[in-house]
Please model this.
Amino acid sequence: MSNDAEMTDAQGGAEANGAEEFVHEKQRLKILPGSSDTAASFAFEKEDHTLGNALRYIIMKNPDVEFCGYSIPHPSEAVMNVRIQTWDGVSVWDVLRKALDDLCDLCDVVEEKFTKARDEFNAEHPDRMKKKGMTKNKLATTRTIQQHRRYHEQGELAHMKFWKLI
Amino acid sequence: MDGYNAYDGIDGDEAGPKVTIREMDRTTIKFNLTNTSLAFANSIRRVMLAEVPTIAIDLVEIESNTSVLADEFLAHRLGLIPLSTKGIEDMVDPRECDCDPICDRCTVVLRLSVVNRSSDQHVKVFARDLFVESVGGANYNRANGVHGTSSEDMPPLGTPILMDRDKQGPLICQLRRGQELKVKCLAKRGIAKEHAKWAPTAAIGFEYDPWNKLRHTTLWYETDPKAEWPEPEKNGQWEEPPTGDERFNYEAEPETFYIDLEGTGVMPPDQIMHSGIQVLQNKLASIIRDLDSDNQGQTNGYDGGFSPPMNGGQSAYGGNTAYGAGTAYGQDPGYQTPGFGGAGATSVYGSATPYGRQPYP
Ligand SMILES: [Zn+2]
Model:
């Protein structure tokens, strides 16, 4: 079969693409057979509705996307599939990448707003502040954001401008 | 992709999500999350319920149990005792720790040693009788938050949470005269997806559209739903009640979510929210990492990256799935999820398939 050539590629790639550098975490994202650059199905291992529905939503917000849907093919298999089809030859990889970045930014914004609302509430109710045991968990927060920034190449999103979409 | 960014033109700080806190105490936060989608709000709810890491007793070594309760019954009860999660982010997941069999990075040891020597009264064994002991045996500190001097009011990691007035904690069992209980408990980090004992929340209330204007639910009624159903007293005052004569807005979407986040006390409720968001972001980050490490996928598109299907698609999901042979996308015969069908050893979870190495059948 003509697949032979492909498999040589895949094999070489799997070794060369640094999979070994990430041995601590197995590759959880796979692309399903029959996919093209503008219409692809991805399989996310060990993911469920928690990621699936939010990702589907944010991908559908992208005007370059013709269709996006997700499914969990079998309840006893921890796999979640996402189908993306795009307009005008836009790459599904770019769309997926952008959706992940946007969702991460959305988390940052909600985190920020939540922290602010909490601090304001505490300021308004100083009497309760003591017994509450609320944490100053800036540490955990900044850690997440830094971690995210590291994976965040598209600088134009940094100021959460994408918000107008949501 | 250019058209996407064109949306950035619209301005205003009011856009984007909003959080309004309604109530907050030691265990609970009630807040409104506005201007988000149902999908995202639900992701946050789900992640807080099931995937925020906490600590709970996972292994119990019973040295002596002459109580009326069976060993496994006791072990189960011990597992459910809420333990302080202070500093849980620095605790190593037991499955990822390289120690053998335990170390103090992945395990907190608690000891329980109670005897009723001579009393005709039952001796009650409470969670407060559990003592945290470091793995090495040093640093034997009394429970009950003696060390709670840092910014948080939480007692040290693994200490039982005592929320009742008498600071006793949950009752574990009772001992008659001559009965003894001596156990060593190993508390580990985990998430509620694996076992509910690791849940940081007792419950999460989640409501939207209290007046049912979107008609996401159908109210059962005898003759008149308005007369028979009470007004939504809980969150109804946050939204305009329907006047009754407006037309159904088929474009409306839920945008305000009324969340009652009720913790168990092992973690302050705001921390649950923070950790939840962090877990969600870690999920995203790990997939972004996968995308980036998968150069082949980036450059070569669909040729790379997938595990070859097993057994020629003979699984129950065989040839006729949505992605299958008969569809417009089908270049290959139809396989659904990689790893379906055939011996477990060749599944995606098995060790036999390091990503993209197995030849086609
Ligand atoms: Zn260890």
